[in-house]
């Protein structure tokens, strides 16, 4: 009976934490996002408290079998925001007006905590301008060159998302591109965040963080790398074994 009560107490505390997302005092300015539309991965990683939010796009939705439809995206936003601070979702549409209306509709569950993504195209930036002036938080996405950071800063976007891995695939130095973007927004005295995306491994992200980059979105595969250090897992097992040999279960 005692063990059952102990278990129920832990479950209650965990549920309370999950339903009351907050920013830890010592997190600083960094923001880590989980880049997936797979809710099973949210359930796995968001309860750690390490993630500021979730990022999605139509391709990720398709991979996860999630319809790119407003009712479903509103439901996903509510789920994500019950476990984290922010939910990023991409607007779509063949015209500027369509993207604007889509963005307005997407934020209905929480204008304060949902960020609308639009590509750094001419039409995307036109839509971003209207959305930003409507009080909607915007991330310019699909960034492939450092000069695009000037556009994000000038239009007043909260985030710009460079595709690090894909830039490197094209023969660019993806890390240098990200550093230059940070220098540009700093030089322009902008508060736009460089949201580094398309990260292929945790070591690259750590290298960027060591140079002052502070905002990242990455896949569950990269998250797995962060939480699975063999020697740390072995040390934790050793602690548990020592405790079980030398204590009375509370």
How would you characterize this protein structure?
This protein has 12 helices and 8 strands. It is an alpha/beta fold and 250 residues long. It has an 8-stranded parallel β-barrel, surrounded by 6 helices. The chain is globular and about 65 Å long. The protein starts with a helix and ends in a 5-residue tail after the last helix.
Q: Please estimate the helix content.
A: 40-55%
Q: Report on the biggest sheet.
A: 8 strands, parallel, barrel
**What class, by secondary structure content?**
alpha/beta
Name the assembly state: single chain
Physical arrangement of strands within the biggest beta sheet = 1-2-3-4-5-6-7-8
Please, how many helices? Answer: 12
Low-confidence blocks of residues? 7-20
Distance between the termini: 13 Å
CA-based gyration radius: 20 Å
Query: What is the β-strand count?
Result: 8
What's the shape? globular
Strand content: 15-25%
Task: Please outline the helices and strands.
Blueprint: H1 2-18, E1 31-35, H2 39-45, E2 53-55, H3 58-63, H4 70-81, E3 86-90, H5 96-106, E4 114-119, H6 122-133, E5 137-143, H7 148-155, E6 159-162, H8 164-169, H9 174-187, E7 193-196, H10 202-210, E8 215-218, H11 220-227, H12 230-245
Parallel strand pairs: 1-2, 1-8, 2-3, 3-4, 4-5, 5-6, 6-7, 7-8
Helix pairs in contact: 5-6, 7-9
């Amino acid at each position: 009976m005692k063990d059952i009560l102990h278990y129920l107490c832990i479950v209650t505390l965990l549920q309370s934490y999950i339903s009351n997302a907050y920013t830890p005092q010592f997190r600083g300015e960094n923001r880590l996002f989980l880049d997936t539309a797979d809710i099973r991965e949210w359930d796995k990683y968001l309860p750690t408290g390490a993630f500021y939010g979730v990022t999605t796009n139509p391709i990720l939705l398709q991979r996860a079998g999630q319809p790119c439809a407003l009712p479903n995206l509103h439901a996903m936003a509510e789920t994500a925001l019950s476990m984290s601070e922010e939910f990023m979702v991409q607007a779509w549409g063949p015209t500027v007006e369509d993207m604007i209306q889509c963005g307005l509709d997407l934020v209905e569950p929480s204008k304060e905590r949902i960020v609308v993504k639009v590509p750094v195209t001419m039409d995307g930036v036109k839509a971003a301008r209207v959305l930003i002036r409507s009080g909607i938080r915007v991330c310019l996405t699909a960034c492939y060159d450092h000069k695009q950071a000037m556009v994000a800063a000038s239009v007043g976007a909260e985030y710009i998302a460079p595709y690090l891995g894909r830039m490197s695939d094209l023969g660019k130095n993806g890390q240098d591109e990200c550093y230059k973007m940070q220098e540009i927004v700093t030089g322009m005295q902008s508060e736009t965040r460089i949201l580094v995306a398309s990260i292929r491994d945790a070591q690259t992200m750590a290298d960027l963080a060591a140079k002052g980059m502070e905002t990242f979105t990455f896949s569950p595969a990269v998250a797995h790398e962060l939480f699975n250090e063999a020697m740390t897992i072995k040390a934790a097992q050793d602690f548990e074994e020592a405790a079980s040999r030398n204590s009375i279960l509370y």
